[in-house]
Amino acid sequence: MQESLDRFGDRFYRRVFTPAEIAYCESSPAERTRRYAARYAAKEAAWKALSLDDTGHAWTAIEVVRQDHGVSVVLHDPLAARALARCTTAISVSITHEAGYAAAVVLAHTAPPGH
Amino acid sequence: MPTPDQINADIRAILREHARLAADADTLTDDADLYAAGMTSHASVNLMLALEDKFEVEFPERMLRRRAFENIAAIREAIEELTAGR
Fold this sequence. Notes:
The structure holds two protein chains of two kinds. Chain A is of the alpha+beta class. Chain A is built from four helices and four strands; from the N terminus they run H-H-H-E-E-H-E-E. Chain A starts with a helix and ends in a 5-residue tail after the last strand. By secondary structure, chain B is an all-alpha fold. Chain B contains three helices and no strands. In chain B, helix 1 (4-18) packs across helix 2 (41-55) and helix 1 (4-18) packs across helix 3 (72-83). The mean pLDDT of chain B is 92.
């Protein structure tokens, strides 16, 4: 992640993270790379959980939002509409980061069509 | 307008630098699956940004999908589409 941030700088931030995500990650110089890495992991996990490999969308359409206890994933249109069309009712996410690695687990909850 | 061979050569050079493939990019066929060759999703973002630098293009949202970067032929098609008319 640090390599990407160094190599592509602002363009990498702008294409992958929302302004709120950038503000949070940049608020701690010591933690910034880990925070970016964890958010990237969550976005990739969400992309896969939502089975959206066949549709193009911006990375910023998946946003990791801080909550009092942990984080949540918020989808922005048109991705949110696509997820809804696939009967996605909720998304659960867990992220972790330590020196040298970051990981995320995302569950996409779905309802049977017509419910 | 670069020829398809020139575009392929540039793509392979960028793959060598950014895709972190298990195999040498020069040994891959144009339709070889880059993800199967070891390219991660994160590496594909680096690849996309490096392609944008090289070809002075910007990939639109509709192209930001796995299939657009899955092999050299698909990448070349995208580059040709984005540079058409120059």
